[in-house]
Design brief:
- This protein is of the alpha+beta class and 70 residues long.
- It contains 2 helices and 6 strands, in the order E-H-H-E-E-E-E-E.
- It has a single domain (8-64), classed as Structural Genomics Hypothetical 15.5 Kd Protein In mrcA-pckA Intergenic Region, Chain A (Roll).
- It has helices at residues 11-17, 24-32; strands at 8-10, 36-38, 41-42, 49-51, 55-58, 61-64.
């Protein structure tokens, strides 16, 4: 699959898109520090590909990965 697949997004891009972080560097630090959970498991790979339905957690914030159909 291509990284341009519209049904996937990288974890660091997802965090930026949802204003959890302002920069890729901030995303990298949070992820490497083990502060981000994906599907209830600590995720330390910032390039982790997220798919529709994945659940991303940071502190008390929980977001479900969703893509518009089109």
């Amino acid at each position: 699959m291509s990284t341009d697949d519209p049904s996937m997004i990288r974890l660091d891009q997802f965090l930026k898109a949802h204003a959890i972080v302002g920069t890729g560097g901030q995303a990298k630090l949070l992820i490497q520090d083990g502060q981000i959970l994906v599907n209830s498991e600590v995720e330390t790979r910032r390039r982790r590909q997220l798919h529709h339905g994945d659940i991303v957690q940071f502190e008390d914030l929980q977001l479900t990965v969703e893509f518009e159909e089109g």
